[in-house]
Amino acid sequence: MKLDTISTFLVMAAVSVVSALPLQNSALNPHATCPANILSCSLGADNVDSCCLPTYGLVVLSQQWYSGLGPREEFTMHGLWPDTCSGDQGPWNGCDPGRIYDDVEMRLQKYLQDDPGTSSAFFKNMTTYWSSYNDDNNKFWSHEWSKHGTCVSTIEPQCFSPKVPNKDVYTYFSSALALRSQHNIYQALAAKKIYPGSNPTVSSMQDAIEAQFGVKAEINCTCGVLSEIMLYFHVKNADQYEIIAPHSHGDCPDIISYPVKSGSLSPPPHCHKRTTPPTTTSPSGSIPSGRQTGPCTTTGAMVCVDPGISNQYSKCNQGLWVLNQCRSGLLCYSDTTTAAHCA
Ligand SMILES: *[C@@H]1O[C@H](CO)[C@@H](O)[C@H](O)[C@H]1NC(C)=O
Ligand SMILES: *[C@@H]1O[C@H](CO)[C@@H](O)[C@H](O)[C@H]1NC(C)=O
């Protein structure tokens, strides 16, 4: 290494300690004219080429905590979401109809085969840290890509030279995983002795996150149980993320449950707020719950045997109640006295 290369390296290393770490697997942007160090959502960002700076300049890294999903001592990925600078989400159906895919798993595998520079550890990391709670990684990844990945302007195909099929998809997921591994929430909490199996205050969790990353996060719950932690970023130099204060502190109560991840997959807790009164047109009067037997009149009616606890439900099938079961890992939840669903 020549001396000037070394000193450039040292300067860059010093800069990256105080600002954003350059991401691994970064998109090598062919636009030589990218102005350096302009931050997305700052004054002047508007005039910068969309391959140099994301047009959706606020990026949210969302990591989730679900029992049975992923390693016991790791948060797993929900997504990396490009938002408008004021915090609004991109279009619900993504930003590029031509790149809406339903086969992202295959595209990633194909890309990894074609590019000898990629590591097989990447795919393992996808299945470990970005797994789906309903067991369909391809569907989960395809959704995240189509809705969010297509809105990342810096990885549009024309930003790569030469153009390589599916490099956009690969770059989206590899950058997101790299950002996740640089922002290990489990470790941030553990550093302040906040461990699963406890009931921490949200403010103690915020303090732990701030101690590690310099800013607070958006912490969300479902029925008082920790579900998701979101970190907010601006971007510079195409793919360097600078963490910023979150736009919201989340929706958790003051004291929450940070559950131990058990071995079995349990769905996010549901707390159904009844919006419609219990129906009075149930097949045989009002049916609270419990196993139903004998004749029934409303074909298709479903009743949980033990809502939220068991996966069994009774279903009215051609005039008779029959016992059914939600598929493995799911539980039965009652919506009304004669409608239930598995989650
Ligand atoms: C896989 O994940 C680990 C842990 O986050 C990380 O240290 C490693 O660099 C990742 N490897 C690849 C190829 O993404
Ligand atoms: C988190 O909670 C906020 C309310 O503070 C809500 O607006 C947001 O949609 C939630 N985010 C997720 C990912 O559920």
Automatic annotation (TrEMBL):
Gene3D superfamilies, per database record: Ribonuclease T2-like (3.90.730.10)
Keyword hit for Signal: yes
GO biological processes: RNA catabolic process
Entry keywords, A to Z: Signal
Pfam families: Ribonuclease_T2
Biased composition (Low complexity): 276-290
Record's protein name: ribonuclease T2
Organism name: Dissophora globulifera
High-level lineage: Eukaryota, Fungi, Fungi incertae sedis, Mucoromycota, Mortierellomycotina
